[in-house]
Amino acid sequence: MKLTPMLQQYLDVKARYPDAILFFRLGDFYEMFFEDAQVVSREVGLTLTARTKGEDAVPMAGMPYHSSQTYITQLIEKGFSVAICEQIQDPKDADGIVKRDVVRVVTPGVQHDTENLDARAPNYLAAAYFPDQPTADSVVGLAYLDVTTGDFRATELKGLGELLSELDRAEAKELLLSEAGLALLEPHAERLGKVFMRPRDPEYFEPDALRARQGDGVRLADDLSTDGYFLSAEQVEGFFKTARDFGFMTPTLIEGAISALLNYLIDTQRGVSSVIQRLSPYRAQSFLVIDESTKANLELTQTLMGGKRSGSLLSIIDRTMTAMGGRRLRHWLNYPLVDPARISDRLDAVEFLVRNPALRADLRQALDEVYDIERLCGRVSAGTANARDLKSLQGTLALIPGITALIPAEAPALLQRLADGLDPCAELCAHIERALVDGPPTQLTEGGLFKMGYHPELDELLDLSHNGKDWMLRFEREERERSGISSLKVKFNKVFGYYIEVTRANLDLVPDRYIRKQTLANAERYFVPELKEQEERILGADERRKSLEYQLFEQLRREVGEHLGRLLHSADGLADLDVLSGLAELAQRRDYVRPTLDEGTLLKIEDGRHPVVETTLAAGERFVPNSVTIDSAAGRLLIITGPNMAGKSTIIRQVALITLLAQMGSFVPAKSAQIGVVDKLFSRVGASDNLARGQSTFMVEMTETAHILNNATDRSLIILDEIGRGTATFDGLSIAWAVAEHLHDVIGARTMFATHYHELTELTRTLDGVINLSVAVKEWQEDIIFLRKLVEGQANRSYGVQVGRLAGLPPAVVERATRVLENLEAGQFDEMGLPTPGRTPGAPVEPTRRHNPNQLTLFAAATPAMAPEEREVLEHLAELNPDALTPIEALNTLHTLIARLRDA
Ligand SMILES: Nc1ncnc2c1ncn2[C@@H]1O[C@H](COP(=O)(O)OP(=O)(O)OP(=O)(O)O)[C@@H](O)[C@H]1O
């Protein structure tokens, strides 16, 4: 096919961006051709047309450039990347076809247009570097960064499980990885949720290959039209050094992950954005480990049903005033601490702000005026910040001295440190203040940005254009007087410039020296030489002024760009202050108390409440607080029974949430709470309760249970809700039983087990660290009343039928269920031990057994249900060799064994 030069240019550019959809700028449109056109037409509904007709028809789709953002956002949400190809040459200067090139690539993890991003959530691009021939247990290097804020972190993880959890809790949007890594992760795509995976060649992960590409670190093509500030090679080298100095086990893995991220930034933005100032390496164990299903089950940042923020723990506790604070709080929630000293630092600060409501109110009022400096810095470094952005930045900087002054000398150390660390960048602030007018326009090319007195040449031009306008007014007045045409007007349009307009009725008064330019229906337009001379002066000054203002603005933005490190440091402090004062506000509003944290193993909550459920009860309902004590050294496994809807799930979840809140440095909904810090938090919901995830398979539940058993330690907190329900009763019960024993005997973790298997309460007979609790209900006539109170001992009945009645089952069904239940409880079983619910009450009854044989075998096989003496006797018997015994020995042994059984 013979291609036009334009299509040839398109194909040349496209060849360099095969993975992306190329938005090719043609005048006021972005066009897509060939396969890209088909993709966008299918994915976002653009009309598919053809560039040429006939056999050589080239598929084409397009949109006006000003409405491109919606389409870009839709494509990014579906995991595509979009390469924006602009005209990088003024068509006037073009010799043939105008030069075009890609100025940036937008991908899910690299987006600069923050309008479509959640202001209170990060937008991370991640890279995972696996060693050669990785396995599911290999150590992996993980690095991730947010180009909108400069947040850049790295850590080392052991095995796929840890990697998947970390990607989930960091909330990464896009992941760069090797083909081998992809092969390992792909089977777990579902656990990865919305992380888009991008395989890359091995060189992508090599620091030396990066160094070779990086050159002097600045943009790769100098003639590109958009702005943007990039880091130098030395600055990039600083990241590697930070990673090496941190003491990772395998620093090369981290360096590989960092290289991939930076390579990707070069590919998508032509350099490493200067907003990426600092790398923060961390160890996953320095934080309370929360895996992805725990995070989901506990609805930390979104609800299980519908994935909404509203109704999550985050939505309840977020009282921050700024977007930066909102993101920071989210981070604290995803990464609670484990070091009691660091937690205390935060709690001291929150407590101080609780006790000083006036100070808190002033602080929050000041923070309310604070703009998102982090994302403003991101826009500065991307070269997209406009004059309003710089004005917002300056307004925020101007607030800083006042904020620092609010924190008194007696405030706790953390508050002092944060206040002292705020840098008002006074010179920069004064400089922007001197430069920009109040309320500048968003457009940078139309002038009107700078104040008088900022720049001498600009002042002259401003004068000229001002004076010129005065001249016009004076000229109009004089012409009216001279001609006697009182309705004469001097007007301006882009085609003719300035002209004199006289209505048809006054044409006979028009002086001879007026030169006619245009005739309209009701008027004539004229000019005179002196008007044109003046016009040239004004328009020339206006043009020069606009381009000078643009240049001056770029210079100012560059100066701000040189302060990014200091600005981001202040942003960091403001975010922390916002979170701390927000937590204090929460504590005071919702009546939370300060928890006590230590290295012990006790978890004791007095009158605890569920932070979310307590806010969602209907009017008139009261949340019933409950106390819980768990101690690895004593009662470490709580078996909680009770009817459906009694409140079992609520209680076990509230214990987990209170622990988590305490470890992030928040006050907690309780009368008091003592918490021996937890290293890992696990929460599992039985398959039947986990409908929202759409995977009610028993397999998932068992995989998750296996994960807990393989990872929990004696410092962990585990809450299990209805584990084992996804399979046949006896299998489920057997598994639940064995899991409970293992947690109790081998792991020794603090565990709460909510269950409908009343049989599990028998564990107290053999395991001394098990405590039976139940959620109390009261029977009233045929109904039950939920008391919501956790009491000692097991529940004696399930009350399922009564709950069914409450839920509105038809009376006939409730009646029949009651009868069937009576039969079951009377112990009617068939010869196989299966219940015979169909039997009519009163009919002759088969020989009955209270428990069916399957259930008996469970307890028989599960030797722990026996007294220890019984077990010893059995073991002794099994070891005997009758052939080696004399009759007397045999008789004596028999006597001893019988005596021991009778004593037992
Ligand atoms: N302490 C409490 N005070 C007031 N209301 C409560 C309390 N605990 C639970 N509730 C209410 O009871 C409802 C049911 O609680 P929950 O889901 O914890 O019951 P459950 O025993 O786990 O039920 P199931 O066994 O059917 O899963 C909650 O949605 C809440 O509205």
Automatic annotation (TrEMBL):
Secreted is among the record's keywords: no
Transmembrane segments: none
Chain residue ranges for the region called Disordered: 830-851
GO biological processes: mismatch repair
Start and end residues of each DNA mismatch repair proteins mutS family domain: 716-732
Binding site for ATP: 642-649
UniProt superkingdom: Bacteria
Single GO term (MF): ATP-dependent DNA damage sensor activity
Keywords: ATP-binding, DNA damage, DNA repair, DNA-binding, Nucleotide-binding
Gene Ontology cellular component annotations, sorted alphabetically: cytosol
Keyword Hydrolase: no
InterPro entries given in the database record: DNA_mismatch_repair_MutS, DNA_mismatch_repair_MutS-lik_N, DNA_mismatch_repair_MutS/MSH, DNA_mismatch_repair_MutS_C, DNA_mismatch_repair_MutS_clamp, DNA_mismatch_repair_MutS_core, DNA_mismatch_repair_MutS_N, DNA_mismatch_repair_MutS_sf
Gene3D superfamilies recorded: 1.10.1420.10, DNA repair protein MutS, domain I, MutS, connector domain, P-loop containing nucleotide triphosphate hydrolases
Cited NCBIfam families: mutS1, PRK05399.1
PANTHER family, alphabetized: DNA MISMATCH REPAIR PROTEIN MSH1, MITOCHONDRIAL, DNA MISMATCH REPAIR PROTEIN MUTS FAMILY MEMBER
Similarity-based family: Belongs to the DNA mismatch repair MutS family.
Function summary: This protein is involved in the repair of mismatches in DNA. It is possible that it carries out the mismatch recognition step. This protein has a weak ATPase activity.
Protein name listed in UniProt: DNA mismatch repair protein MutS
Gene: mutS
